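Sample entry follows:

_____
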Amino acid sequence: MNVVIRAENEKYAALGFATAAETKADDEKRAAILPRVRYGR
């Protein structure tokens, strides 16, 4: 039973890590685009 619970916790941790990495990449992409949009470049 503990193995199942541990695997489930690791799955959710991996999903959380993947979501955080994706969010960071989206923010970095948006930050790179934003100055060009603001100043018309």
